[in-house]
Design goal:
14 strands, three-stranded antiparallel beta sheet, 231 residues, globular, alpha+beta, 4 helices
């Protein structure tokens, strides 16, 4: 067992499906297997859904297949989702679990009142730095291996607002400049900024400096990942 930091380079230990599935079950979400060989979890109030979609291979972010899709709707009978968020394999499961807790505890997960500064300020409180060229939209970890950026929503990221040119948060880790991404995340324009902040920098989320335990370590992160101790 390794105890490592920073968290955003620690990977998912190959157990992203199991860890997030366990978190959702613990929150009381109900699970159904689908005809597409995916696993769909629905919150007790029917407002939120989380689906393990890796087997269906819906699309890629940064060259990596999407593994989890998270969504919210205004009411349980609504066919259309208000927003969607997408996460590839390799993402630290602690950060995604934090986001799910934040979503689960909200009475109206489709409504937010905070602005983009909420995300940037939360990252700044954990020591991340703003990009000099885009200080109001982009922040990076001190080692410049991970980035959060508010930019044009990628084509396959779906939101209730169909207008072109929507802005949504994207995050990724590139252990070494020019190397393949370790993981990527994409949030549609309608995702409340405070929920993105919950994923980014609250409690045990992505930017937390606290060590995490892993049985296996990403090869691409060698030299950037600090092993605090072994047990």
């Amino acid at each position: 067992m390794y105890w490592v930091t920073p968290r955003h380079l620690a990977g998912d230990d190959g157990v992203l499906a199991e860890q997030i599935g366990s978190s959702l079950t613990g929150l009381g979400w109900h699970m159904w297997p689908t005809s597409r060989d995916t696993l769909l979890y629905v919150s007790p109030d029917g407002l939120c859904g989380a689906e393990w979609v890796l087997a269906a291979y819906p699309f890629e972010l940064g060259g990596l297949p999407v593994a989890w899709q998270l969504s919210a709707r205004p009411d349980a009978d609504s066919v259309m989702t208000s927003w969607n968020a997408y996460f590839t394999a390799g993402i630290p499961y602690e950060a995604l679990a934090d986001l799910l807790v934040a979503v689960d505890t909200r009475e109206a997960p489709d409504i937010g009142y905070e602005g983009p500064e909420t995300v940037l300020n939360a990252l700044g409180a954990q020591g991340w730095v703003r990009d000099l060229d885009s200080p109001h939209t982009t922040a990076m970890d001190p080692g410049f291996s991970a980035t959060f950026s508010l930019g044009l929503q990628p084509p396959l990221v779906q939101d209730a607002d169909p207008r072109p040119g929507l802005m949504g948060w994207q995050a990724w880790t590139e252990p070494v400049l020019g190397a393949p991404y370790l993981w990527c995340a994409g949030f549609s324009a309608g995702v409340p900024h405070d929920l993105v902040a919950a994923f980014a920098a609250f409690a045990s989320s992505l930017a937390s400096p606290a060590v995490v335990s892993r049985r296996t370590l990403p090869k691409d992160a060698e030299g950037r990942l600090m092993v605090v101790r072994r047990s």
